[in-house]
Design goal:
- The chain has 355 residues and is α/β, with parallel strands linked by helices.
- The chain has two domains: 2-270, Metallo-beta-lactamase, Chain A (4-Layer Sandwich); 286-348, no CATH class.
- It is 33% helix and 22% strand.
- The chain contains nine helices and 16 strands.
- It has helices spanning 63-75, 93-103, 117-128, 136-142, 146-154, 232-244, 262-285, 291-297, 312-331; strands at 2-3, 21-24, 27-33, 41-49, 52-56, 83-87, 109-113, 170-172, 177-180, 183-189, 198-202, 207-211, 218-219, 250-253, 335-340, 343-348.
- The strands form four sheets. The protein has a seven-stranded mixed sheet with strand order 2-3-4-5-6-7-8, with helices on one face. The chain has a five-stranded mixed sheet with strand order 9-10-11-12-14, with no helix packed on it. A two-stranded antiparallel sheet has the order 1-13.
- A hairpin with a 2-residue loop joins strand 9 (177-180) and strand 10.
- Helix 8 packs across helix 9 (312-331).
- The radius of gyration is 20 Å and the shape is globular.
- It starts with a strand and ends in a 7-residue tail after the last strand.
Length: 355
């Protein structure tokens, strides 16, 4: 994920302080820790109704996150046993796995987008077998990042617990409506960050539970998922346009503070990716010919950090995001690509027949 300048009223630091913040009537934002993750915390949103709580997202299944959730719920007079349902925006560990952990001990229902089925199935397979190649490895090798792929293969970022990736109770379709007491939220399919990402919109209250689709401080990673879309950036830009066409709302993101305008942030994100496409094209014009070489010419984070100065996990995110931008440049006719000895090479201009 690439940091961008935030809106003037966004709080870059205080949003991750533990507790329960009332962000709208009946809705509390609860940040849960991510101890080994640069994102610092993930927000879950507790929506109150007479029959109990619905949580948007669940957090990462680690003891510190469960304790933070328990204490925050206690602050609003509730406990884990008052949770009736999790609506999960997407199948990343910091959103899905604690919902599974709570379900093993309490009678809660977990729902997620139907298009996340391939991602959850892949995680289940990897949890049960060491013989399955991690999804990012062939992508990194094709991008020309062979040494990084070898490092990730020797030292994977995480081990998969099969209990964390059990199937949900319900698969939500695009447009599904979920009643939460007198409130109703609508699930909107917003692929890009993952293939099955959903946002949940409360149109009457003017709220958008945005997951990782629209974030106030950073841009979501693109293309980092097991069952990768054919063109994740194309899908992401289309999903941003979908949300921009809806009435404006209060942005309730998974990472960062509640922010006044979804539209304002979407406009910033669209402008960022336009700039990034231009920078990617210039890198090719300057002689880079693989995704790895292009990523090495670009600056990362708001400090414009060099690729080699990022930690391995963020190098993977950077390279896969670069691949996604190159794919869009090919689709728009600005760039051509061909595979040579298993590595994808790019050049400016459309080829007569692309490899």
């Amino acid at each position: 994920m690439s940091p961008l300048p935030s809106l003037a009223d966004a709080d870059r630091q205080g949003w991750a302080v533990p507790g329960a913040e009332l962000v709208a009537p009946g809705v509390h934002r609860i940040p849960l820790p991510l101890p080994s993750d640069g994102l610092r915390a993930v927000n879950v949103y507790a929506i109150s109704a007479e029959d109990g709580l619905t949580l948007i997202d669940g957090g990462w299944a680690i003891p510190a996150a469960e304790e933070a959730l328990r204490k925050a719920l206690g602050d609003i007079g509730c406990g884990l046993g008052d949770i009736r349902r999790f609506l999960v925006t997407h199948a990343h560990r910091d959103h899905y796995t604690q919902a599974m952990a709570v379900r093993r001990r309490f009678p809660v229902q977990v729902a997620i987008g139907v298009d996340e089925q391939p991602n959850i199935a892949w995680c289940q397979d990897l949890a049960h077998s060491d013989d399955i190649e991690r999804a990012e490895l062939p992508l990194l090798r094709r991008a020309g990042a062979t040494r990084l792929a070898d490092l990730v293969e020797r030292h994977p970022f995480e081990r998969f617990n099969p209990h964390d990736w059990e199937a949900p109770d319900a698969w939500l379709e695009d447009g599904a409506r979920v009643a939460i007491g007198p409130r109703e939220v609508t699930a909107h399919h917003t692929p890009g960050h993952t293939r099955g990402h959903l946002v949940f919109r409360d149109a009457r209250a003017g709220l958008l539970f945005a997951g990782d689709h629209v974030l106030p401080h950073i841009t979501p990673s693109i293309g980092f998922e097991p069952a990768r879309l054919e063109s994740p950036l194309r899908a992401y830009l289309a999903s941003l346009a979908l949300i921009r066409a809806m009435p404006d709302a209060l942005l309730l993101p998974a990472h960062g503070p509640a922010t006044a305008s979804v539209h304002a942030r979407v406009d910033e994100l669209l402008a960022h990716h336009t700039q990034r496409l231009d920078e990617t094209l210039r890198a090719l014009e300057n002689g880079a010919d693989t995704a790895y070489a292009v990523a090495a010419q670009l600056g990362w984070t708001r400090r414009r950090t060099r690729l080699d100065d990022l930690d391995p996990f963020n190098q993977v995110l950077a390279i896969l995001e670069t691949v996604a931008h190159l794919e869009v440049l090919i689709e728009r006719g600005h760039v051509s690509g061909a595979d040579v000895d298993g590595i994808r090479h790019y050049r400016v201009g459309r080829a007569s027949s692309e490899g």
